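>> Question from a student workshop board

For tomorrow's exercise we were told to take the sequence and the ligand below, predict the bound structure, and bring the output to class. My setup keeps failing. Could a helper post the expected result so I can at least see what it should look like? The ligand is pyridoxal-5'-phosphate.
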Amino acid sequence: MATLLSPAADKPVLTPLAAQILDTLVHRIGKDEKAARPHDWLAATIFTVRNDIIEKWMDSTREAHAKGAKRVYYLSLEFLIGRLLRDALSNLNQTHDIAGALKSLGVDLATIEEIEPDAALGNGGLGRLAACFMESLASLDLPAYGYGIRYVNGMFRQRIDDGFQVELPENWLQYGNPWEFERRESAYFIGFGGEVVGTETGHVHWKAAEGVEATAVDTPMVGWRGKRVNTLRLWTARAFDPIKLDQFNAGDFEGALAGQTRAETLTRVLYPNDSTAAGQELRLRQEYFFSSASIQDIVRRHIQYTGDIRTLPDKAAIQLNDTHPAVAVAELMRLLVDFHDLGFDEAWDITRATFGYTNHTLLPEALESWPLPLFERLLPRHMQLVYAINAKLLREAKAKGVDDRAIAAISLIAEGGERRVRMANLAFAGSHSINGVAALHTDLMKKTVFADLHALYPDRINNKTNGITPRRWLQQANPGLTALIREAIGDDFLDDAEKLSALDPFADDAGFRSRFASVKRANKVALAQHLKELMGIRIDPDAMYDVQIKRIHEYKRQLLNIVETVALYDQIRSHPERDWVPRVKLFGGKAASSYHNAKLIIKLANDVARRINADPAIGGLLKVAFVPNYNVSLAEKIIPAADLSEQISTAGMEASGTGNMKFALNGALTIGTLDGANVEIRDRVGDDNIVIFGLTADEVAEQRARGYDPRAAIDASPELSQALSGIASGVFSPDDPDRYKGLVGGLYDGDWFMLAADFDAYAAAQRQVDARWQNHEGWNAAAIRNVARVGWFSSDRTIREYAKDIWGVL
Ligand SMILES: *Cc1c(COP(=O)(O)O)cnc(C)c1O
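>> Workshop helper replied:
Here is what the output should look like for this input. Compare the format with yours to find the bug.
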């Protein structure tokens, strides 16, 4: 929308939209055009867009109410949302209008989009899944609420200092958050501690020793084409009595405010912990705090609309994203039994009919369990209910002739050593559906963690392979590719990602392949520019961009990639005459602050990068970069520019992965193991369009059972031996030659993640990738086939499956 010039005043006449933004700037932010800084323009733009959203939001709520629709409640301790402005504009089809209006005011939309902070209320895949699900729920026009915690400090910001990770608080609320609506009227009491007493009426009453108030803060979640706007409701903790006036007046200012500080601590930080259960009491408090507030809110809404608690499962489907909210099972039981006077058995039937549970990990160290004394001290009434549920469960098992070993395995209480409450078993027992997140993972769930519960309840476990929203991960992140696809096959795929299949024949069209290559190259140029500004590194857009970005974890095997990089470096130096493919190896990801080896792997990537990038002998054939502070916004920049996607976890250990889907959708080829959703990606793109290597999950289990000998595997591979001895002897760490002795020694001594067992297969697969890259036409054809064949991994498909099979809302 161009600015119109009024002949009379010779002053620009603004379009109504531009006038609205300006009016918001003045009256809401309190700045004029001259004083406004970029953040003020960002806020004014968001407030303007928000007005439109609010109307749709209220319509959505009214409509669900009028229809008496069943609602989906997604409980997750993490929502890794990223930025929202571009998402909202794109889904509302307002990008063009807002960009024009801002331009007439002298403001560049892209510039202010870039300064919106990432809402990083999650660690990695699990939290991002919750965010993709919220978008798909709204896009499919399903009434849904997300429930979580409004952390003041979400995921830490990662800085790399001299190659080491440094964790800094991410102050995402620094400039306020124009997306959120505080609902002071939706507040609940959350108790902790105290005792359970009987009352004269024969009821049981929990007298909590302390309590905080949970207050709702709502963010609108806009669906594709603005069809529906759902609510993400995040809880914030406050003291009931924010200030003790008598103490304050007596001069004890700190003491007077201590309660407020203590309450606020509850929702201050996200545990920067991707897979291992945090043992801290604060974590259990967080879990109960948000579960209780959410369940109270759901029950309150249900009673308000229907007046009959018994119909809860007809009107509410509650999905537990991993075990973090599993205590919600006991909380609902408490409300049904203690406040709604239901008998235990009836309450239990209602509870099970209402809950579904999604499992995200098989790693034993990541299966949450709480020391029983802690659980009992913090939640005495819930402890009683857990015992009662357990008694019922074990009686049922006994009646079916289950033996003592299996009884011990399905019990909600782990005996032997320190007694602990097993949250996965509680979530399983309290749910009518238990799902894994990829076919292989679901299969392994039945055979491992839940083998005995599965034998007892064979109909409960089901698979729901993860997905990603194509709006954020294709349309918004990769506008160039989106435009090219529209030109080729029209717009159908925008509403149904599986329609991307129409692109398949274009893989054989040389003209299309060439346009596809130009789009990829433009994305690579843009990334190169960004990385130059971000970290001062120069990377060549004509080299292969080989990318591994994800949380740093030994099972994800960044170390395998780094060691192979070192081996390749050795090879290039030994055989400079060979026809090497120029590669840029990009790494990115955060390590949990207490995870020593993961942090050492980050340092190693940086040490290797420094040495290789400074070596004139390899003539720029190999560049390595560790990109700091991997988050959603960085992923949106890197993934469209990737040629090769590294998905190389030890088979059987990655539940699904979703990064793998994002890369394939953006036309990168995968090099990967048969793990998680890689298996299903291979099934869809076809063997010829993916590079698979290494042990299968069965083979990993078999080797471990047989007694795997990593030393023998290392000795059998000259390339691996040479790379490891270089690393261990300090070639990459001359300032501290012993830095990696322990890390490499761990491979010789145990190598739980089977790096040595898979090394040669991985290196061979990489040379196969090189050969494929030399054939540019073949590479591009395979990349196009990836885009055309992974529409099934849209989170719309995943959510449709949940809606039909688990929630009963489709
Ligand atoms: C998609 C995504 C993940 C998950 O990546 P995986 O490779 O599946 O582990 C983690 N973090 C961010 C920021 C993401 O966007």
